[in-house]
Amino acid sequence: MWSDESRFQLHHTDGRVRIWRKQHESMHPTCMSTTLQAGGGSVMVWGMFSWHDLGPLIHVEQCLNSTTYQSIVADQVHPIMLMTYPNGGGFFQQDNAPCHGAHIVQEWFQEHEGDFTLLR
């Protein structure tokens, strides 16, 4: 199984707006553009999949730190790995995000190393 998380911007805002107008059209509604305060927001999701199975797509409501990630691993990864690979022959792969390498996360994987193999 492989997992990753991604943040999606709800509105694209790079701060650059170009409007072509004539001098007398400055306040005309077609020459105005709305703005979004604080970038318009975003949504972060986490998911996992393999050739054989598809895990859930989890909405991450807070910052993805080591504590949040460790909860996701314990509540989502572990049960799915045990169900998909009941003999302990499964492999789990994650990227090198800082929260994945945190001490509490690595300790959790060490405590459950017989259930599946964590790829480095």
Automatic annotation (TrEMBL):
Domain of life: Eukaryota
Identification of the protein by name: Transposable element Tc1 transposase
GO terms for MF: nucleic acid binding
